[in-house]
Amino acid sequence: MATIFSRIIAGEIPCYKVAEDEKFFAFLDINPLVKGHTLVVPKQEVDYIFDLSNEDLAAMQVFAKKVAKAIQTAFPCKKVGEAVIGLEVPHAHIHLIPIQKESDMLFSNPKLKLSDEEFTAIAKAINSSL
């Protein structure tokens, strides 16, 4: 059975897409810690990020770097933090989170509740910064 991320990539489940190329897909986290919180996933269904080939892992980081720079342009911040936890969905993914301070990266923080219009505007802002 396909993971929820594979179903999002296939277009079976709607998302707020930020970027895509032949190997990777980036979309907004629907339970964001802050505005601009984005997930980067390989199109290849792999549970653990370190099970990717060296080439794909390196390419995923380069793709994530491009998305992170666009996030920082769209949502000015000190840095875009990167986190790989990967326990909640069995599909490798990187969290890109615009941060002003380290505590912005705490996954125990309350999640934002955003409207469809807000998500759409955020995705558009990041995509147009690519």
Core attributes:
alpha+beta; 3 helices; globular; 130 residues
Beta-strand percent range: 15-25%
* Separation, N- and C-terminal Cα atoms: 33 Å
Average residue-wise pLDDT:
97
Based on Cα principal axes, name the global outline. Answer: globular
Regions with pLDDT < 50 over 5+ consecutive residues?
Answer: none
**What is the H/E order?**
HEEEHEEH
Order of adjacent strands in the largest pleated sheet: 1-2-3-5-4
Main beta sheet: strand number and arrangement?
5 strands, antiparallel
Number of helices, counting only DSSP H or I runs of 4 residues or more: 3
Structural class: alpha+beta
Helix content: 25-40%
Strand count: 5
What's the alpha carbon Rg, rounded to whole Å?
Answer: 14 Å
Please sum up the structure shown.
With 130 residues, this protein is of the alpha+beta class. It contains three helices and five strands, in the order αβββαββα.
Notes on the structure:
This protein is an alpha+beta fold. It contains three helices and five strands; from the N terminus they run αβββαββα. The model has no long low-confidence stretch (mean pLDDT 97).
